[in-house]
Design a protein that fits this description.
- With 102 residues, the chain is α+β, with helices and mostly antiparallel strands.
- Helix content is 19%, strand content 23%.
- The chain contains two helices and three strands.
- Strands 1-2-3 form a three-stranded antiparallel beta sheet, with helices on one face.
- The protein is globular.
């Protein structure tokens, strides 16, 4: 449930990139944000590290810490339900480490 709460708060924060998600039990660290383009081609996106505020409160399901990637889409709950993916995934494969570019 903690990762769902984090995802919702990060999603809402994409509507104003000057705000930061707030929660008494969670700590948010925005790593990077991309503003929306005026043409609508690029959607506002945030990359946020989320962890529990107090280490003794780790969720039993092991869902935190997590990297939440939130893309501005719709604020309607039905859209969140349709797009929901409750399975957490290891994201280390998304990042390239020790690479050299020509």
């Amino acid at each position: 449930m903690a990762v769902l709460t984090a995802a919702i708060k990060c999603s809402i924060a994409t509507y104003d990139l000057n705000t930061r998600p707030v929660d008494d039990k969670l700590a948010f660290e925005t790593i990077h944000s991309i503003p929306a383009s005026t043409s609508g081609v690029i959607k506002a996106t945030t990359f946020t590290n989320v962890r529990v505020a107090t280490p003794s409160q780790l969720p039993a399901d092991g869902s935190l810490p997590a990297l939440v990637v939130a893309v501005r889409g719709s604020m309607k709950m039905i859209d969140w339900i349709v797009n929901a993916n409750h399975e957490t995934r290891d994201a280390h494969e998304l990042f390239v480490a020790n690479s050299s570019f020509p």
